[in-house]
Amino acid sequence: MEQLRESCEKAASYPLNLVHPNAYRHTLNYYHSRLDSREKDLFRDQESSSVDILDLNFPEATFDNTTIKDVSTLKKHLWRDLEVDNLSIEEEKLPIRCRFVFMTAPNSHEKLDISREMMAYVFSYMQISPRFLDFVMSFGRTECVRSFPCSGFWQKNTIDDEVQALAIPELGRSGNEIMFCYILRGVESSKADPGLPWSIRPMAVHHTFDGETSNSQWVVVNASQIMKSSIESIMKSQKTPLVTDFKTVEETIHSYLTFHQLVSEWSAEGWQWYIDYLDDQLQSLTRHALAVPVEKPSATDVLTGEFSFSDLQKAQALGEKVHEAIFVLKSNDAVLSELKASFIIFIDEYSSKLQHSISVSQKNLRTQISRAECLFCLASDRKKLLYSILQYKNGKQSVPSPKRPRARLTP
Predict the structure, then answer these.
(1) Which of the residues 137, 201, 217, 285 could staple to 223 if both were Cys, CB 3.0 to 4.6 A apart?
(2) Where is the CorA-like transporter domain (predicted)?
């Protein structure tokens, strides 16, 4: 407990303050300097910050949803099983069995709603791996949208390791932990850009599961409220077994795996409609090019004013959107493969069903990859056709009209 207290007191230096960071000092210094450089673009000021926390109250199996807007209230909430003033044990209480921390943003190119001080304290209290910062920094304001955003999966299992994680019995932490963190991207409808009704949005997840106490800590970073709303709906529904499936370690594991299933399904949804939209836009822009006559144009042919250089630019932009979709779809597929492989340690009927569910999501992703690759080839061909038409048009306009021979004057 003393080590955690000291770590939280030095939260401003996160991740340098972690008790067992599983990283070299120079790596921690790098992450800390990256936070310094991204602070203004990634986090809000303390006066306008907020974070949502969803807690399971055990053994009642009820959930509390709390929105916290300052560091002082955050500290009281996190240490609520202990006495707030001096953090000493006041009465015998069972620790929180499951806790979700939601860090959201209006969109993936805007600041997170949380302040750096609040995030650093949450991550210190939960002893979040610095590796997760790679995914968190995918959010926030940037000078330009990254063409190839960060993607990946990281796992750490201390159950069989000689060096275990920080053990804090008072908080239900035995030191035997399994940690996952990964980032996936989904496509959602959006009203932010009137010219583009779809938006590709990232979701970063960090999950720590205690193998002895079955306690679980989640951090979900998302550019919308969709996952928070989905989890709240499931947890608060009296018709779902997830509300009561925290009595045994096995039941708890099953419930936690279901949350990963939610995220994997989200990453595979919406892509069919997004690719349909890009296909429709490409056809609307370029299909008339197929009807351009190859014979000598007349004064009334569509060649005279149907296409312009801006059409070529629009075709290029559509091709880039399709290429981005292919990259994201393949990245999601790779992350889901690693996530599915990590569930092999849970050898039972339920984990097998979950692996099957992830395989279904991957099948959907791969179908959309094939569609997007075909659309990318079509976009490239149509762009070449537009370019050829423009070249031909410009060439005809630049050819001078033949001069008529002057009549000879006879003497």
Answers:
(1) 201
(2) 6-289
Residues in the chain: 411
**Chain centroid offset of residue 198 CA:** 15
Tens of pLDDT, residues 379-402? 999 988 888 888 877 666 555 555
SS (H, E, C) 172-206: CECCCEEEEEEEEEEEEEEEEECCEEEEEEEEEEE
116 forms beta bridges with none
pLDDT digits (tens, 9 = 90+) for 332-358: 999 999 999 887 766 566 677 788 899
pTM of the model: 0.86
> Per-residue confidence at 87, pLDDT binned at 50, 70, 90?
very low
Q: Give 168's DSSP letter.
A: B
Q: CB-based burial of residue 91 (10 Å sphere; 0-12 exposed, 13-18 middle, 19+ buried)?
A: exposed
How many helices (H) and strands (E) the chain has is answered by: 10, 7
CATH number, span 2-229: 3.30.460.20
β-bridge pairing 196-210 and 177-193? antiparallel
267 contacts 185 by C-beta, under 8 angstroms? yes
Using an 8 Å Cβ cutoff, are 375 and 278 in contact? yes
Could you check whether the bond before residue 15 is cis, i.e. omega within 30 degrees of 0?
Answer: yes
CA–CA dist 289, 218 (Å, integer) = 52
Picking from 135, 113, 138, 130, the residue whose alpha carbon sits closest to that of residue 53 is: 113
Q: Per-residue pLDDT tens for 194-241?
A: 778 899 999 999 999 888 888 889 999 998 888 888 888 877 665 554
Which tokens belong to 245?
């499936």
Show the 3-state SS of 363-392. HHHHHHHHHHHHHHHHHHHHHHHHHHHHHH
Strand pairing of 98-104 and 216-222?
parallel
What the block records as the tokens of 143 is 């000078």
Q: What residues form DSSP beta bridges with 55? A: 64, 99
| Residues 257-295 pLDDT 10s | 888 999 999 999 999 999 999 999 999 988 877 766 655
Please give the full DSSP string across 209-263, using - where no structure is assigned.
EETTT--EEEEEEESSSHHHHHHHHHHH-TTSGGGT--SSHHHHHHHHHHHHHHH
On whether the CB atoms of residues 107 and 192 are closer than 8 A, the answer is: yes
Q: In what order do the strands lie in the sheet with 62-68?
A: 62-68, 51-57, 98-104, 216-222, 196-210, 177-193, 152-157
